[in-house]
Amino acid sequence: MPILPTFRLLCKRLSACRGWLPGAILLGLLLAARPGASQPTPARPAPTAPNRLEEFLAAAYQHSPLLGDWRGQVLQNQLDSLRRAAQNRPYVAGNAVAVYAPVSRRFGYDEAVSNGGNYGTVASISQPLLNGNVLRNDYRLLENQGQTLRNNGRLSALDLRRSLTDQFLTAYAAEQQWAFSREILAQLRRQDVLLRRLVNGGLYKQTQYLSYYLSVRTEEVTVQQNRLAYRRELGTLRYLCGVRDTALRPLQTPVPPTHAPLAGLHSITQRQYTLDSLRLRLQHRAIALSYRPRVQAVADIGLQSASLLAIQRRFGISGGLQLSVPIFDGHQRQLASSRLEVAEQIRHGYRSFLSAQRQQLYDQLQNQLQATTELLGLLREQLRVAEALVAAGHQQLATGDISILDYLQLLGSTRNFGFSLTQTETDRLRVLYQLDYLSE
Fold it and tell me: Keyword Thylakoid: yes or no (predicted)?
């Protein structure tokens, strides 16, 4: 069911039952029901052929059935709030009874007990009274449940973003490896034309050229392997997003997120434990309220008689109050409270452990980011030197001042530095995105 029409329907029903809802709770439910509260919802349809990280995330948010499930559960929670309001309205029921008690000489009930029968058709009405505290606590429980559902939706969106970003970076690294190996192959092929002339001119031996020829063929295999690896990783990325596309398109370079501090108790992952603490307190209060006396007004109107023939002359009404006072329940209240206390201890243990985990991971990623940044600077410098040596070797190759094997070693060093640089840049992006997750 579309979210906007459902939201309008909820507004109408909430307006109709405004007399039964406290003003603050009504406002909270209206704010919780606004479109976009149950994150995440993409602002516009995802592209059919995404190539940026943001586009893949938009496609995943749009196609994910899990996120749609959370949005649906939030709407169900809002309908539960309306249902609880309806339960506090007068309840009207129609009842009909026709009971005949036959009596003979030695058989049958005493007519003083059975009246010979009971016939009637009445409409009864009941209305809870003096239950404002119970009603407000129930509304707070439902509001807490709605906040928990929305936070679970944000947690699912965060997990989805984490897995998709990791796969995007894996595919991006595979594409960079493929592009770099193609560049090496193109350079080898350009040199191959020159080497053939030099071999034919007698400057190099045929056996040396065969080693170079084998390197070209090996690099061609490497290019095809890297191409297949990129296709596989890109296919996995599209599979996770629910995108039907098989074309081999390049990915745009991801923009690294800005470094943010570690989020504290108000983070998405920590908020679930705050909501759990509030839920346990409300459940404690609900147990206490359930043992208070309950009063409700009851009334009925209709026909009722001990004789079927005289029922049309027995029209009447009755009314009064019904009081229910708990006396003894076998210590169920104490056991229920003890159970909630154990749940609070479990919650506190999870929260303390998660806080320590997040702080330890944050410190570890900080150190890893610093080490990766230093390694990137070293690799860029080494790659610059290796490329300069390859350029000098290219000039010396034309004059015969360098052997073909030495030139191949220079190319191999350049390729290794390039691959290491690509992998290290990808690792640095992963660290930055993990730090970004810890800031939410």
Answer: no
